[in-house]
Write a structure and sequence with these properties.
Layout: H1 3-14, H2 22-33, E1 38-41, H3 48-58, E2 59-60, E3 63-67, H4 74-78, E4 79-84, E5 89-94, E6 101-105, H5 112-115, H6 117-124, E7 126-129, E8 132-135, E9 141-146, H7 159-162, E10 167-169, H8 176-187, E11 199-200, H9 201-209, H10 218-233, E12 237-239, H11 243-259, H12 267-278, E13 283-284, H13 295-305
Parallel strand pairs: 1-9, 1-10, 2-11, 3-6, 6-9
Antiparallel strand pairs: 4-5, 7-8, 12-13
């Protein structure tokens, strides 16, 4: 099965339970191609968990949901060693992170100490417990959710944690027709369809391996770097996007090309991925966002300023 057909099958499978949201689904698939992690940030009741569960159910991969609360410990995530009286040895008990697809539900409700347990896993695809390093299974992807409005009892993610996410996406309210379909579906006496896997872990690894073969013209690379540099010099920005953001935007643009059935990147691929890949990496001087320019506004302004290259 080629990459385009495999990704189309996953998309169609997810659409059995996710009404509308084609762009959101595509962005999840792009992150999957990149081996990237996603922060799904929006109000309660908009289907964040349903979206992530639909992706996990569509893949023949191990899945684990972690409900983050203040009493979750780092060892619950990474695992721990326990002394066995029978053998006199320390035996490692894997934590919930030792799966392929991880749903970190309401990630900002866990303490910073527990949040930090994800840092090594998300960057190096491994965890270290008592000096011993354990490789995580492949493919590995963390999909975290959080409510950006209700901040009581939450611990905001630090910049280093935010930078580990390839992209941040928002669900948004459904259209009138979509909400009608959602309500109609919940009135049905039949249960929602149980999704079966339509792609294996080997399929995903093969698609991920093809990412490096996508051609990126030098002019497009220059365009990406100019966009990222522009976030560092815009008024009102305390901290712009790091080189990790340049790499992430390049990867996301290549994955977008794969999704569209191309073996080369267009400047439009870069423009379409810029906001969701870069905005959460920008720290504004006015962090509350109550007044003035937001990070998304910064990215939009930079895209208007930087000249779009013409490629052959």
């Amino acid at each position: 099965m080629d990459a385009v057909n495999c990704l189309q099958n996953i998309r169609k499978n997810m659409q059995q339970v996710v009404v509308g949201k084609e762009e959101v689904i595509d962005r999840l698939l792009i992150a999957l191609i990149c081996s990237g992690h996603v922060l799904v940030e929006d109000l309660p009741g908009l289907g964040k968990t349903t979206l992530v569960s639909a992706l996990a159910s569509s893949l023949g991969c191990g899945f684990q949901r972690i409900q983050f609360t203040p009493d979750v410990l780092p060892s619950d995530i990474t695992g721990f060693n326990m002394y066995q009286l029978q053998t006199g040895e320390q035996v490692f008990h894997p934590g919930s992170i030792h799966n392929q697809i991880i749903l970190a539900d309401e990630i900002n409700r866990a303490s910073p100490k527990t949040q930090s347990a994800l840092l090594e896993a998300m960057q190096e695809r491994q965890v270290t417990v008592d000096g011993t390093t354990y490789e995580l299974p492949k493919p590995f992807m963390v999909l975290a959710t959080q409510n950006p409005v209700e901040m009581a009892g939450t611990y905001p993610l630090p910049e280093a944690q935010m930078d580990r996410f390839l992209m941040r996406i928002r669900m948004g309210y459904p259209s009138h027709e979509e909400e009608m379909a959602i309500v109609r579906g919940h009135r049905s006496v039949t249960e929602a369809p149980r999704l079966s896997p339509v792609a294996s872990a080997e399929d995903i690894l093969r698609i991920q391996a093809s990412l490096s073969s996508i051609h990126v013209d030098e002019a497009v690379l220059d365009y990406i770097v100019q966009i990222v540099e522009g976030t560092r010099t815009t008024e009102g920005v305390l901290m712009g996007v790091s080189p990790r953001g340049s790499i992430a935007l390049t990867q996301a643009a290549c994955a977008k090309a794969i999704l569209m059935g191309r073996d080369y990147v267009l400047p439009d691929d870069v423009k379409q991925m810029a906001e969701c890949v870069l905005s959460h990496r920008i720290v504004m001087k006015n962090r509350s966002g109550a007044e003035g320019t937001t990070a998304a506004d910064v990215v939009a302004a930079v895209l208007e300023t930087v000249k779009v290259p013409k490629i052959k």
